[in-house]
Amino acid sequence: MKIIGVKGATLLMLLGAIAGGLATTNASAMSKSTKKTLTTLQKKEEKLTKTNKLVDRELDKVGVKNLIALMQNSDNGSIPNTLDSNLNTYKLSQATVVSTGGSKTVTLPKGSVIRGSKYTLNPNYASHFSINVENLSKRNQGYVFKKLGKTSPKVNFVLNSKNKTKTYKKSTAFSHNGVQNLPDLSSKNLQSYFDADRSGNPFITITADKYLNYYSNYQTKSGKVNYNKYSQSVKIKRFTRGSSNYTYYLAKPLKGFGTKKVRVGKTHQYRLKVSLGHVFQSYDNYNLDAGGYRMTVKVGSKNFYVDLGDIAESYVNKLRGNSDSYVNATAAQKYINALQQ
User: Fold this and answer.
1) Based on the structure, what is the number of domains in the chain?
2) Rounded Cα–Cα distance for residues 236 and 254 (Å)
3) What percent of the chain has pLDDT over 90?
4) What does pTM read for this prediction?
5) Comparing C-alpha atoms, which of 155, 156, 159, 177 is closest to residue 168?
6) What is the pLDDT of residues 187-210, one digit of tens each?
């Protein structure tokens, strides 16, 4: 739990009186009391106080190119030497048979670019590798959807001496030096001030073959994600990896995002800029205990967010004058300072 000031505590005590029964919902099903609670939290968190401006200014210096590092968690309170392996990118060294754990399988071609990570169920047996389906190329997604269905977030295979992965070091709109350029982003909305965001919240992801996919109406009747049901899918023609922002040049407009039509050579493309925004805190859906911090990510004219890791959270707490942090505040500050331009 994060430490909050006296005014903040008083506010949350008042909100707590109407917070009973709050849970993950969707916008149309939100009760008046829930909406009132969230609106109050939104006003509190979006108020540009001197302290909030300081927090935003310090993390903005890190830039979107280091957003992945801001999401990094500590290793039992210590600063790790490497970034979270779940955001690493690889290239398959050979045609690879993958599955969701059942008898059905599908083969991904040699050279396929993937995002995923190694895991071990039993140290006496070979390790496995888990691949994130939403970041596969469209061709490989097609293979998976046809044989394994459209709702599995991951597919897996067994690692052995022949079946290996190689770090994908090519710099593209999808990956840079073996790490995902832009993580999956969740849409920032009124319920984002709760720890558990609304059901079916829109999100953005980028595929290995450089498509920007926007999902906004993707849930099945059972509440699962249909990864083949994106609202918009636009090819990224060119990408600029700046320090403070990313610039994507798209083959066609991303509707509702304020893309700007620009001339590139003899053709027109549609420019979309991505940059960091305001840091805000989320709260427990039921008792309104202060939760983690989130970083707003501006994608054109829309706002999305990612959860900050406990290292960045410790530094934010230090700036806010809070002492309750899992990671040593001095070590966290040193980590963030090293990321700043």
Assistant:
1) 2
2) 11
3) 80
4) 0.89
5) 177
6) 999 999 999 999 899 999 999 999
Say if residues 194 and 23 touch (Cβ distance below 8 Å).
Answer: no
Quick one: which of 132, 100, 127, 129 has its CA closest to 115? 132
C-beta pairs of 183-189 under 8 Å, 24+ apart in sequence: 183/67, 183/68, 183/71, 183/87, 183/306, 184/134, 185/297, 185/299, 185/304, 185/305, 185/306, 186/304, 186/305, 186/306, 187/216, 187/302, 187/303, 187/304, 187/305, 188/296, 188/303, 188/304, 188/305, 189/27
Tokens 């008046």 belong to which residue?
32
Same domain, 77 and 100: no
pLDDT at 12: 41
The tokens for 226 are 């249909």
Residue 175 placed within a domain: no
CB neighbourhood size of 288 (10 A): 22
Cβ atoms of 289 and 1 within 8 Å: the answer is yes
Give me the mean pLDDT over the 218-239 stretch. 95
Query: Residue 30 is part of which domain span?
Result: 6-83+182-339
**Residues 295, 281: contact at Cβ < 8 Å?**
no
- For residue 208, give both structure tokens: 């290995």
On whether both 300 and 233 belong to a single domain, the answer is yes
What tens digit of pLDDT does each residue of 49-77 get? Answer: 999 999 999 999 999 999 999 999 999 99
Q: Are residues 103 and 78 in the same domain?
A: no
Across 88-151, the runs of DSSP E, i.e. the strands, are 89-92, 96-99, 105-108, 113-119, 128-132
**What does each C-alpha distance from 196 to 44, 127, 225, 294, 295 come to in angstroms?**
18, 32, 16, 12, 15
